[in-house]
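Posting this for the archive.
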Amino acid sequence: MTRTVVIGGVGPTIGESVARRFAREGDRVVLWARSESFVEELAAELRAETPGDAVAVSVDVTDPEAVRAGVETVHEAFGPVDVYVHNTPAPNWSGPLDDDPASVRTTLDTVGYGFVVVVDELLPDLLDDGGTVILNTGDFVKWIARKMARQLAPEGVHVVHVFVDGWVDSDTVDESVPDEKRADPDEVAAEFLRLVEQDRDVWTFDVDFRPWGDDAFRTRR
């Protein structure tokens, strides 16, 4: 079955890898980001290089009107949404001695509030045929995903909380970090696909991904 997959917060690591993985499966992939330049180029590559389809849409997930318009664009292009991956980047708060309270608000708005806004808009699609939503972030908003799962799992919607406990490999990771402590974003994306395709008899809710060479369990949450 061809799925319609919306990815909120597409950047050049996990978001891009997830988009490429599902497009290789032949799915219809929708790339959401505040800036269209990166996602438009990626969407063009996916259309040209994979059996799937792709569109890029500028969406601010903290703006309900923008989310509503973004969902309408998805419906016009591909129909109902089957999968939503919330992968929005947000700054980590460093503590009161080193950081400003505004960074906490930005993080909570983008990750927690934004996830709720999008899922609320997608509920009719998700409930109609049983969809999947994945929240990719730390423990600080896991309670939101848990409350969703309690209500939506009995209705056939798979809610998953995912956390990558370590460095996701990219050009921005300090060269002092060895390969065995870096998570390959393509492998993370492959695990996302497995979560989406899980049989409902064994649905996973909470997943930590950790590079094999990292035994520190940093839990950067």
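The chain has a mean pLDDT of 92. The beta strands are 4-8, 28-33, 53-58, 83-86, 132-136, 158-164, 167-168, 182-183, 206-209.
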